């Protein structure tokens, strides 16, 4: 049961309620004397972007400016796209293009034909060594001493070749005295010029024109002279050619003339259709000067003007040689007959290469040109050359 409380008790109770608890007072005092650790030492990872207690002036400025603008991201370079982009080269086809499709396209070299220059060079070196060996067998060049090693043998061959070329050049200059004596005899009213002397003077003239370039090559690159005898024999003087080299040069010249006689039938037919053939008519038919030079064993280098000039000089030499052949009436050997016919572009079939057939063909030539005048001497001989083709 509840006890009755006197009237003065509520007042005391109200006073008691308003009085703080001793425990709370003790806690507040402890908090004042020892503040919490978080108030003294803020969190290490807490970052303030604005002042904690902004001033009224700062608030007004921020209100005027509005909310802060976030920073712009860094500018990036725009990627430029090239359209259309560069095309990669397509792999070349294994087969070459047809001439009809690509008339100006260079001919593609096949894989197997790339070794051709190396093989031809090796073959040329073998032929050069064979020429030196043949010259040693015939006593033109002394062989290396027996038992010599490769170095001594090679050095010996180089020295002997240098001596051979030196003697050949020296012979060219010593021939001038003989030619001067021949001309002095003719000028004094002595015996007329013979065919052998005429050809000797012409050979000497050609050698004098070749000796200066040959000397330059011999002084700088002596070891390439045997290769020049294979690839460019027209550069060598006649006194600096080994016998086997001379035979090969003559064989290649005859082969070139025969090929021209067979492969230039259409050109020769075009020249024959013009009736009387002259040197001026050669320029009217395309390829005619080249075909005639090949047929006569002349160089085909240069333009048509130079080729026509070579043909004119060669026909003048043939005209003088014909006159001396008729004058001397000398009997020619088989090799001399072959050379004489080749100089005139005359060739016999393979089954008629005996000496009698050669003499008959040369006699036909001399009979045909015997009564010609000096004005039509060249055109007459050119007509005879084409009549046999």
From TrEMBL:
Record keywords: Membrane, Mitochondrion, Mitochondrion inner membrane, Transmembrane, Transmembrane helix
Region span, Disordered: 50-131
Gene Ontology cellular component annotations, sorted alphabetically: mitochondrial inner membrane
Secreted is among the record's keywords: no
Localisation per UniProt entry: Mitochondrion inner membrane
One GO MF term attached to the UniProt entry: ribosome binding
Biased composition (Polar residues): 110-119
Letm1 RBD domain boundaries: 199-389
Membrane topology, as annotated: Single-pass membrane protein
InterPro entries per UniProt: LETM1-like_RBD, LETM1/MDM38-like
Positions of transmembrane segments: none
GO biological process, one term: intracellular monoatomic cation homeostasis
Annotated Low complexity bias: 93-106
Entry keyword Membrane: yes
Name of the protein described by the UniProt record: Letm1 RBD domain-containing protein
Biological source species: Candolleomyces aberdarensis
